[in-house]
Amino acid sequence: MRPDPWIWLTVPLSLLLALLVELLPFPQPLAQLQPPWLLLVVLYWSILQPAILGMAGAWLMGLVLDTIQPSFLGTHAALFTLVVTPVLALQRLLRTLPVAQQALWIAGLVFLYEVGELLLGGQLTAGRVTAHDFLPVISTLIIWPLLRVLLHRCERCLG
Amino acid sequence: MAHLFRKGHPGPVWLAVLLLASLGLYLADARLHLLDHVRGWLMAGTEPIQRLAALPTQLWRSAAEAMRSRAAMQDELARLSQENLLLKAQMQTFWAMQEENRRLRNLLRAVQPLEQDLLLAESIPVKGDARRRMILINRGSRDGIFVGQAVLAAEGLLGQVVHVGPRTAEVLLLTDDMHAVPVRIARTGQRAIAQGTGESGRMDVLHLPNNADVREGDLLVTSGLGGTFPAGYPVASVSVIEQTQSGVFASISARPLAPVDDVREVILVWMRNASSMDIPTHAP
Predict the structure, then answer these.
(1) Among A49-53, B150-154, B246-250, which is the least confidently predicted range?
(2) Beta-strand (E) ranges in B174-214?
(3) Given CA atoms A64, A34, A116, B178 in this order, what sign does their dihedral have?
(4) Do B21 and A77 touch (CB under 8 A)?
(5) Average pLDDT, stretch B128-151?
(6) Of the candidates B159, B138, B166, B179, which has an alpha carbon nearest to the alpha carbon of residue B39?
């Protein structure tokens, strides 16, 4: 399974787009539902083309998010690395799973990511956590199948 | 760079290296504050993406502006010119009062108030962390913006600058739960701390005892203690007062005056010693 050269264009482009969507200021009820777009795209490529991004790529993307969001440097970088590690280890299994099961796996990882974000942001220890903080987990369940189809199309029409 | 990491299975060694690198960055940034310059460069790198992401909102706003009717514009123009006239009339007495204040302080050999420079900036409409109350503004270190600088809205205090890039800066709003302002009650002069709660319309007023003289609607202004914020700017008005049965301190909430949810334009403040020669060198 050797990735074709077009993939070197598709991956950065999709990551850039994810970053743009991440930054769009949606109105309030929608903003709370926003899944972690960049993480989802990173996870997609980790499952489908694990050789391209890898752990270091995920770390770098987390660092980009750290500079764009007002978090301390290194927090999202660590979280991205931690979330991508089990995906890379179980890549062969995840790749063959049906969409629904795959979405459940991804939503579980997004849950852990949100917990990590709350922990490192200090909200968990300050007791300022509400159910709203976990809405992205639910939206991930819905978005993941769509995102998978979309990115697969992109990969095909470019490749 | 991906070629570097392609060989072999992504092993625990890489995980350890990357996590240690994250930890190092975190400690250097959060605990030692060594990375302010690095952060500036990184913000310069991500600025084009942020400007691009802000484009749809800005286009939408300017389209909405262009669609407004001529009558509505004329109404607004009339309202603004009236407001301008009133403000100018008020300013006439203000100059006289400032001069009088300076003279009286000189007589008392008291410390002169700090003078202030102001700069207008616009907010760049991008989404940050959903859990933080922050905005991005279109001025940075090239305009002399610095970390810790006070930021105002037309109605009152808005927050302070926390990160500075060359042409952008991040402002922590006073409703963020990591933000606190030293305030005093304008009516009585009693001092307290106004702490953000993370909710847009509510701040907690800390350290006021149960028997403190506070009423609903009391204006809280910056006390100037701590040196970050200039003294005397309005911050919030007291909205709810609850005497606690147990404990010494009352539980008081206040509503910020600045429109923290929809910030378009902000004002940055520089404080400088106007006439440092007037400050007495000896202790009274």
Answers:
(1) B246-250
(2) 180-185, 191-196, 203-206
(3) positive
(4) yes
(5) 87
(6) B166
Task: Indicate the pairing of strand B251-256 with strand B203-206.
Answer: antiparallel
C-alpha A19/C-alpha B51 separation (Å) is 12
B127 closest CB neighbour out of A26, A123, A128: A26
Q: Are A49 and B81 in contact (CB under 8 A)?
A: no
Best of A46, A68, A75, A139 to substitute, by most chain B Cβ atoms within 10 angstroms, is A68
B window 170-199, beta carbon within 8 A of A: 170, 172, 177-178, 198
Q: Which of B131, B160, B161, B197 to mutate to test the interface with A (most CBs of A within 10 A)?
A: B131
Q: Which of A9, A11, A73 to mutate to test the interface with B (most CBs of B within 10 A)?
A: A73
Q: Are A66 and A75 in contact (CB under 8 A)?
A: yes
* Partner residues linked to B221 by β-bridges: B184, B234
Smallest CA–CA distance, residue A140 to chain B, in Å, is 16
For chain B, domains (ranges, CATH) are 117-272 (2.40.10.340)
Task: Give the pTM.
Answer: 0.80
User: How far is it, in rounded angstroms, from Cα B282 to Cα B280?
Assistant: 6
Place of tokens 């890489």: B14
CA distance B1 to chain A (A): 9
- C-beta contacts of B57-61 below 8 A and 24+ residues apart: B57/A24, B57/A25, B57/B125, B58/B125, B61/B125
Task: Name residue A153's amino acid.
Answer: R
CB atoms within 10 A of CB A112: 14
Residues from chain B contacting residue A77 (CB–CB below 8 Å):
18, 21-22, 25
Both structure tokens of A3: 């990735």
Per-residue model confidence (pLDDT) at position B77: 94
Rounded percentage of chain B residues whose pLDDT exceeds 90: 37
Q: What is the DSSP letter of B112?
A: P
Give the distance from residue B127's alpha carbon to the nearest chain A alpha carbon, in angstroms: 5
Asked if this assembly's ipTM is beyond 0.95, the reply is no
On the CB side of B265, CA atoms within 13 Å amount to: 5
